[in-house]
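To whoever is covering the structure queue this week,

Two jobs came back overnight. Logging them here so there's a record in the thread.

Job A:
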Amino acid sequence: MEFRFELALCAALESPDRVVARQLGAGVTTPGARIVDVCVVTPGPEFDARAELTPDRIPAAALEAPVGPGEAVPVAEAFDLPSEHATAVVDAAVAAGYLERERRQGRQVVRASARYPDDWVDSLTAVENKPDLGTPGDLAAQLRYDVALGLFDEVVLATASYVTRAHLNRIPDPVGVWRFDPETDERVVVREPAPLAPDAPGVEIREERSLRTDVALVSPEAKARKRRRIAERAYGKGWRPEPSACAHATTTADGRPYCDRFDRVVDPGRECGAECPDHDPADPPAFDHDRLRDDRTAWVADPDDGGPRRQSGLSRFR
């Protein structure tokens, strides 16, 4: 249920003035400690300059290296990494179109294809999905983590449940609440989110126990680096999973994986394949992932084909 809820919400949040992605790591001092269900990127003033660079994610190590569009820098000097790791980063950045590589006097050197824009993101919104508030699991702890760290500009809880005052009392005050119907795409704002402070120091909760909570202080600089990584990951990844290689597999009009045999949206990674009794191996259905993203969001599939679309009238989820 939660997977179908999440995909329906992602499809409903898509618009030409934002980028939507799902399942992104949001831990700073402990990578992997927190996975955000949905992330919404609202474009900033330099969004078009970012879109012109590449439709792919630019590796964080390439962005953090002292490499610009000016004089080429030897790879060994630009990356304080083991040689194999540095090579892998350069290969990925070259494939993405961000770095240019050549050999001089027997050494590989790199330069950036263009200046990386610092102000291409206006805001990052994290959405935690919990369709059924009757089985909250670790919801309260996850939301406390997000609020204490303040990595995102806003944090929202999305649910299909009727939200009571008791539910709201268990949710940190800054967290907004949406009631979302995945069948109709109707979204009701139960409570507006309060702005967090991504430019200020944050507290990352590592472990909560009855009499003790282990935390780590996170600097504004570390948060800024992580926000850029999240934004890059969101821009390159999106939210649509690939459909299954099955004769019953198809996609909805907005690109969600669908099974004709069971007449519903499915999770290809968990519900499809040899373990499904009705699995019928076949080529995956035709699925133009890039066209859908390009048509429905601020992401630009082909920057060389007329340049990016200029975004305006940001709706902030209305």
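Job B:
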Amino acid sequence: MQGLKMVLNMIDLTTLEGKDTPGKVKQMCYKAQHLHDSYPDLPPVAAVCVYPSMVGIARKELKDSIVKIASVSTAFPSGQAPMSVKLEDTRFAVSEGADEIDMVISRGKFLAGEHNFVFDEIAAIKEACGKARLKVILETGELSTLDNVRRASDIAIHAGADFIKTSTGKIQPAATMQVTYTMLMAIRDHYDRTGKMVGMKPAGGISTSKLALHNLVMVKEVLGEQWLTNEWFRFGASSLANDVLMQILKTETGNYQSPDYFSID
């Protein structure tokens, strides 16, 4: 039960679709604060994650809440835009009230060996974030090898990332255990050298409580208990919360739950 509630408190409840509407974002913000009205002792999720155009709406809905507002930027999910557009995208999201920015790296530049370009891009976006925390999305499903995942993780960390994140959720495979482990090792090695903590966010494909708990065990074994808070570890998910709620209510009541008992968004 402790693990399940910890997972809930680490979720970035996410909607990143072209069909997103203000109403959907408002509903998600309500759910972020009221996961199940019959069980008021449940923790809220860590954050909601939306497009920059929806940040202002989320800010109004969450104005008195501890739930953070995250926004994707830098021409998410492709990253195929000029640097000026990526910077403006980021500054707009921050000006609308985003607490956190989830940027995508230029995978084409990385795979072409232009690692300095990727480093400079991340550093520039970090500066544009101001006080907002920066999560750097590697899109590991497009990086082909674990060696590339490790190299991209190291570049992002040294360029100033507050978090490194596996995926946009648009490409498969996404947050596999092997990829997450590789990224956790990059964080651990950096911490061993510098004493500076960097956060981790697996995203995409983690939709069950069992897999989420597997990830928490791996984080504890590789990085230690100090990473087991939503300040340093997140799940990027849209459907995980409902599965965790089903498991919690099964444990509390002894009765198996149906997805029909919970709001989709």
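Note for Job B: The radius of gyration is 18 Å.

Please reply-all if you pick these up so we don't duplicate work.
Q.
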